[in-house]
Structure formats: C-alpha cells, structure tokens
C-alpha cells in the first residue's frame, strides 16, 4: 500500500487529499477527480465569481432554477440558524461588507440599518426558486459550502473504491475509513496562542473535524474578527478564540465550529451537548479550554 498526497487551491484555501492505495496511478487520478468535485461546488457558491449562482442571487435578490446543491446548502444553513437562534446566519454578508467599507469605524444608526438585512428567516425557498424578502440582503456560504464540498469529495472517493483517505480543506477535515487497518488518522489541533504548538491530538475514523478561529483573519482594519455575531452589537465578537467540532458530516462540523466562535462559551458547549450528535472543544480569550463530555474519547498521544 502506498500513501499518495496531492494539493490544490479551492474554496479559498489549500485542499490536500491523502489517499492510501495499492495503485499509485489510480489514486492520483481519483484525487484529481475529487478535486474537480470541489471546484464544481466552488463555481456555484463563490461570491467572487460573477457567474456563480450565489453572486446572481445577491445581485438580483432572487434566483430561478437554482441547483439542487444550492437549495440543499441553504436549507441546511437555515436549519443550523434555527438551532443557534440566529447566531449563525448566512445573510451576514451586508454586515461584513459594511465593516470593511467603514474600516471598523461604525456609526450606530448605520449599523442598525445594516443589521435589518441580517435575517435568515427572510430567505424564501419555493421549489427551485430562492428569493430574499428584503432589498439589499446578501448571503455568504463560506462557513458551510467548504464542508459540503468535502463531504461530496469523500463520497466520490468511497464510490470509487477508496477505503483509506483524509481530506483537509483549510481546517475542515474528513476521514474516509482508517489510515491503515487498525490505525486511526491523527489530527493535531493548533494552539491559538502558540501557533507552532498543538493544544491536543485527535484520533479519528470515518468522521469529520472542523476548527474555526477568531485569531487569524481580521476585518475592518483589524478591529473585528471575520466571524461575527449580529446580536453582540457592541463588539460583534464573542470570547471564544477557537472552536473544534467532531461529527459525521463535514458540512455540519464546519457550520457548528463557526457558530461556536460567535457564541458565549457556556452557550456553545450547551448547544453541542443538547444536539447529541457532535463533540466540541472551545478555547476562550482567557485561555480556558472547555470540552463536551465525550470529546476525550477522540484524544490520543
């Protein structure tokens, strides 16, 4: 058996697929085909591609004949928004654009007007049509589309006989089976305060891990995290510096990790415990590490 690794740039990040297989040529071809699946989803979801469905929806406020993929992702995003009571909201783009435009110097009255556009309940989906119920609304799907693309890529690998693989899309990881028979995939979770060190190591089989953080990407001249909570009007950012979620689907892990970074620490852990289908670890700006009850099951040396 050989370990074959290839990388590409997709979904705004470096994506690496590691595949353990007896046929090197076949493995390389299947990895390239899985990369094509990632790029296909990117062409639908990108806010930078003029021809993407999301871009057309944001410009016009409605979209007829939407793809099954976009309909599915939006419905999943709305479901997670309901679970998080609106802390997670894909209609956050007008707020992000406002903060960037104002270089972090926000006007209270303007902010109130912008926040009126952030409301997932004003997305109307009917059959293959999507419509915003308020003019000026926009969506950004980065926090869910990448995980979805990873899920599709893993499904493609499994369909073509792959039993041992790991997909890493800039912090969104999915394991297909084990690394080798009886040996798990080992994942190091970075320490947000000492980036050359890990806070823990995870052992995973056929599951997904996503880590989001408030400590790297900043907007508004560095005054705000790129992960925003529209309900925290004074700071728009929570006390959570980093959040790691382990669950079956990368889409869910991706969205939940983003959500936890926008919530209060106690609320975030309570949410995961209440869901019962995921485990999580959060690190606060006070360097406290809080884990769900069964997170330790995945920890190794």
In short:
With 301 residues, the chain is an alpha+beta fold. It contains eight helices and 16 strands. It has helices at 24-45, 53-60, 68-83, 93-101, 108-115, 142-159, 250-261, 265-275, and strands spanning 2-10, 13-21, 62-63, 123-126, 129-132, 165-169, 172-176, 185-191, 194-204, 208-213, 218-219, 224-225, 240-247, 279-284, 289-291, 299-300.
In total, the number of strands is 16
- How are the strands of the largest sheet arranged? 1-2-6-7-10-13-14-15
What characterizes the major β-sheet? 8 strands, antiparallel
Total helices: the number is 8
CATH top level of the largest domain? Alpha Beta
Give the uncertain stretches in residue-range form: 218-223
Report the C-alpha radius of gyration, rounded: 19 Å
| Molecular shape | globular
Assign the structural class, choosing from mainly alpha, mainly beta, alpha/beta, alpha+beta, or little secondary structure: alpha+beta
Cα(first) to Cα(last) distance is 25 Å
Q: At CATH's second level, what is the architecture of the largest domain?
A: Roll
What average pLDDT do the residues reach? 88
> How many domains is the backbone divided into?
2
CATH topology of the largest domain: T-fold
> What's the CATH H-level superfamily name of the largest domain?
ApbE-like domains
Secondary structure: elements and pairs:
Elements: E1 2-10, E2 13-21, H1 24-45, H2 53-60, E3 62-63, H3 68-83, H4 93-101, H5 108-115, E4 123-126, E5 129-132, H6 142-159, E6 165-169, E7 172-176, E8 185-191, E9 194-204, E10 208-213, E11 218-219, E12 224-225, E13 240-247, H7 250-261, H8 265-275, E14 279-284, E15 289-291, E16 299-300
Antiparallel strand pairs: 1-2, 2-6, 3-5, 4-5, 6-7, 7-10, 8-9, 9-16, 10-13, 11-12, 13-14, 14-15
Helix pairs in contact: 1-6, 6-7
